[in-house]
Amino acid sequence: MDFQSWPLAIGAPRTPTVKAHEIYSTVDPSVVTQMLDWFRDNDRNVYKSALASLAQSRKLRLVFIQKKPVPEQYAWILKTLKSKQSDTIGEHLMQAWLMAGHQDMLAKFCDEVGIEHDGKGSVTGELPAELDAAKLDAAVDALLADFDPKVVTLYLTVFNLQVPGGWQTLTEKLDSDERLSLS
What we know:
The protein is mainly alpha-helical. Helices cover about 60% and strands about 0% of the residues. The protein is elongated. It starts with 19 loop residues before the first helix and ends in a 7-residue tail after the last helix.
């Protein structure tokens, strides 16, 4: 996944140069908390590695950050992920969280729109040239019925980047559906 040409789903016109740090600047902090909680509970090594990399990028000793209470660590992490120099780390965290922590959501979306996948949401075949608007509407409704709308929006935004320029129907859906907002 390449954030170099990310369109951002925030109701404003999409720009072709949105970076990971801009996503973190826009996304509701509760989504970042969910992501960090997931890593602390399910893959502590990724959490520790991200914390160490972010501390190093700020020329801080890791122990300085580790001594902070978890809510203060999270606030510091989010503040740091909003920095341009943290794009790569932030990008990897989002990718890992969506692919490992939300397999059921990814698989449900693929099933709803008719995209071949491995049962965990990783696409195995070719991505379609177009997404059927009716299937997409049904998929979005199904996802929003079962999952946090902000996480759904993040996933759909990321998924839309899998083809250059995104899918027109998905771009329009992200722009027009008031339920789909990162903030």
